[in-house]
């Protein structure tokens, strides 16, 4: 297909690979939410086959008022957030999430899977995907923690009228990224070509969402595993778009800015250079990315992944070579993460983990001294033990590590070569 027939906008423009091998098809769900197919199947990329765009569910417009038991019209309630006066942190509060379907774990409340492709004849027909198959899809969350409601201003107010407790509408956005149509597949088992499509989804949505007024930080992430608290057992991730800077980001910006003022350097660049010089904690690398256990790792399994090229602030700034390199790195990270703990049969385990993309904030002037990085971690500390965040961690935010970064890296070194180009 030609570049002209591929989806693009004023903000997202596909690179050479995506223009030729990934087709993005937009539509809207029955309640008005944005939905996108990202196809890497050549039949859909070429236009030989097309996707189902009509959502057949009888859903009402998500912004339409509803009528209560007494016949009164009640406007849609936007999620709100309140600022903690002791820390300055914003706390979004979304009561509608209490009604979201849960299909994983002992608290499961639904038998169907809303992230699966539609199954003709299946009695469960409340799935989010209109088609009976897909490669990768992205859509707005039906039960968002943050949401922009038309006509509702993001003006500040006060709880109980007291200026101690500032409140605002949680004027952000939440999206879901489904990695594969198979309900029982694992991200670690996906082919690199599919992970490359997921990487394109992250870059595509970062570019598009960056233009939405009121968004300050875009946070793609993946929760994986029942122990993490995942409510839907399907290979997927999420993208939270905050109308504020998250506390972790604010803390990192504080330190990267102070480092720049003190040395004139970029803290992320110098940390990567220092890890490469030390060598011991580098776990694998390719031409465009480096994965290492940070020298002050707090989790029993923690790996940071950084681009080699300077000046990369966000996922949409990656070039084609870097997006392919990232797909290889992410696949390797998931596979070796699953092999990290020895369960006695040599097969490893389905590792519970959180994969968190740290991108530069959109409008904060300190963004130029930041750098894109992935922070991957698991709170499993052995094949049958979990690192609980107890008194020191939860009560004071002070981590006590049960291992050392060097031991984590040494275990990774047992699982495969450091230089990925030497594989296969």
Automatic annotation (TrEMBL):
<keyword id="KW-0808">Transferase</keyword>
<keyword id="KW-0862">Zinc</keyword>
<keyword id="KW-0299">Galactose metabolism</keyword>
<dbReference type="InterPro" id="IPR005850">
    <property type="entry name" value="GalP_Utransf_C"/>
</dbReference>
<dbReference type="GO" id="GO:0005737">
    <property type="term" value="C:cytoplasm"/>
</dbReference>
<dbReference type="InterPro" id="IPR036265">
    <property type="entry name" value="HIT-like_sf"/>
</dbReference>
<comment type="similarity">
    <text>Belongs to the galactose-1-phosphate uridylyltransferase type 1 family.</text>
</comment>
<feature type="active site" description="Tele-UMP-histidine intermediate">
    <location>
        <position position="236"/>
    </location>
</feature>
<feature type="domain" description="Galactose-1-phosphate uridyl transferase N-terminal">
    <location>
        <begin position="77"/>
        <end position="245"/>
    </location>
</feature>
<dbReference type="GO" id="GO:0033499">
    <property type="term" value="P:galactose catabolic process via UDP-galactose, Leloir pathway"/>
</dbReference>
<protein>
    <recommendedName>
        <fullName>Galactose-1-phosphate uridylyltransferase</fullName>
        <ecNumber>2.7.7.12</ecNumber>
    </recommendedName>
</protein>
<dbReference type="InterPro" id="IPR005849">
    <property type="entry name" value="GalP_Utransf_N"/>
</dbReference>
<dbReference type="GO" id="GO:0008108">
    <property type="term" value="F:UDP-glucose:hexose-1-phosphate uridylyltransferase activity"/>
</dbReference>
<dbReference type="GO" id="GO:0008270">
    <property type="term" value="F:zinc ion binding"/>
</dbReference>
<feature type="region of interest" description="Disordered">
    <location>
        <begin position="107"/>
        <end position="128"/>
    </location>
</feature>
<dbReference type="InterPro" id="IPR001937">
    <property type="entry name" value="GalP_UDPtransf1"/>
</dbReference>
<dbReference type="Pfam" id="PF02744">
    <property type="entry name" value="GalP_UDP_tr_C"/>
</dbReference>
<keyword id="KW-0548">Nucleotidyltransferase</keyword>
<keyword id="KW-0479">Metal-binding</keyword>
<feature type="domain" description="Galactose-1-phosphate uridyl transferase C-terminal">
    <location>
        <begin position="253"/>
        <end position="415"/>
    </location>
</feature>
<dbReference type="Pfam" id="PF01087">
    <property type="entry name" value="GalP_UDP_transf"/>
</dbReference>
<keyword id="KW-0119">Carbohydrate metabolism</keyword>
